[in-house]
Amino acid sequence: MNQPRILYLQSGGPTAVLNASAQGVIETARKLGVSVYAARDGLAGLLEDRLVNTDGVSDHDIARLGFLPGGHFGVSRRMIGSFDECPADWLRMQEVLARHGIHYLLINGGNGSLGCAARLADFQRHTGHALHVIGVPKTIDNDLVGTDNSPGYGSAAKFLASTMLEVGMDMISMGRGRVFIMEAMGRHTGWLAAAPAAARIHGGQAPHIVLLPEVPFEQDRFLAAVDASLAAHGQCAISVAEGLVDASGRFVTEANASAVYGHEQLGGVGSWLAGLLKRERGLSAHVAQVDYLQRAAGHLASATDVEQAYRMGQQGVEWLLAGRSGVMAGIRRLSDHPYRWDVAAVALEEVGDQEKAFPAHFISADGYGVTQAFLDYLLPLMEGERMPPFRQGVPDYRRIEWPPV
C-alpha cells in the first residue's frame, strides 16, 4: 500500500505565526510516518500543479520554519467555488490530486479559505476522488467564528500594543499638543484597532481614543474628544480601524472596489482624520498606517500565539489520519485566570464565509475605548515571547529551499 500523503496549503493574508502551523503539520506527519506535500501559492498552485515535497528538507530546517514570518509556501486569494459554479476547477483539482495520490487536504486560512474548504469537503460526491478535508484557522483579523481566537491575532495585537506604548512615551517627552494616529487593518470589525488599548495596562495613557467600525463616526463628538484629551493629557493618540464608517454605514474612505476576493480596497482613514483635524482645529497629526507591519513582526510574536498555531496544524494531521473530514480545529477557552484552552472540532460549514463581530460588551460606554472584559480576553493571547535567532544584528530569516515534486 502506498504511503499516505497530505497536501498542505496556505491561503489568504499571512501572519507572524502562519509557518508555525506548517511546522506543526510537517513534524506531526513525520512522527506518524506520513508524507507532506505543499502547494506553492495556495489554491492557485494546486490548480497549476506547483507542488513541493517537504520530505526532502532536514528536521533542522523544519524547526526553523516556525520562526519565519509570512507564508513561506506562498499564499493567494484564489478560491474555488461550488462544483456547479466552476466544474472545470474541480476536475482539474481531481486530476492533480489523483496524479500525486493525495487523499488528505489541509487548508490553513481565514473566512473565505475555510468557506472553500467547506465546499471541498464534498469533493468525492462530485468527482469520485476520496478526499478528507480539515481546516486550520489563521487570520490577524480575529473574525473567524467557531474559535475563541484565531492564530495570528495575538502576535498582531502584541505588536500594535507595544508600538502604541512606545509612541505614547515618545509623545510625552515631546511636550504638549502632539497628535498621533495609528491606522490598523479591519474592514468590518475592530479587533485590531482595539488591541493598542493594552498599552494602558501599566499606567500608560495612549491610546486616548479608539475608533472602531462598530461605532459610527460622528465628527463633532470626535473633535470634542480630541479637545478633551489635549486638555487633560497634553497629547492625543488615536487608534483607528481602516473600516471606520459614518452614520449611514458607508466607509469614511473607500479607494475602490476590488475585483479580487470581493473585498473593498480600503486605506487612508488615518490621513483622512489628520486632514479633518487640520481643517477644523489647525492641528498637525502624525499618521502611521501599520499595514503589513502588524502581521509580519515575527520578532515580536506571542509565545501563546505560536503554541496555538503549532497545535492547530498538529491537530489537523491527527484528525485527518483518524478519518475525520469537514471540520476546523478551533480554540476553546476554558478560563481567563489562569488562562487555559483546548482544541474543539467545528463544522466547516459553520465557519466558512462567516464573520465574528467585535462584541458590544468589549466597547466602552462612550464608544471610544474598550472594557476590562476585552483586556481579560486579550492579554493572555499576547503572553510570552518567542524570539527568533539573530544573525549579524537582524533576525535570521533565511529562506528554506523546497524540492519541487
Automatic annotation (TrEMBL):
Active-site annotation: D141 (proton acceptor)
Gene3D superfamilies per the UniProt record, alphabetical: 3.40.50.450, Phosphofructokinase domain (3.40.50.460)
Pathway: Carbohydrate degradation; glycolysis; D-glyceraldehyde 3-phosphate and glycerone phosphate from D-glucose: step 3/4
Activity regulation text: Non-allosteric.
Sites where the protein binds diphosphate: G13
Domain of life: Bacteria
Name of this chain's protein: Pyrophosphate--fructose 6-phosphate 1-phosphotransferase
Species whose genome carries this gene: Aquitalea palustris
Organism ancestry: Bacteria, Pseudomonadati, Pseudomonadota, Betaproteobacteria, Neisseriales
Name of the encoding gene: pfp
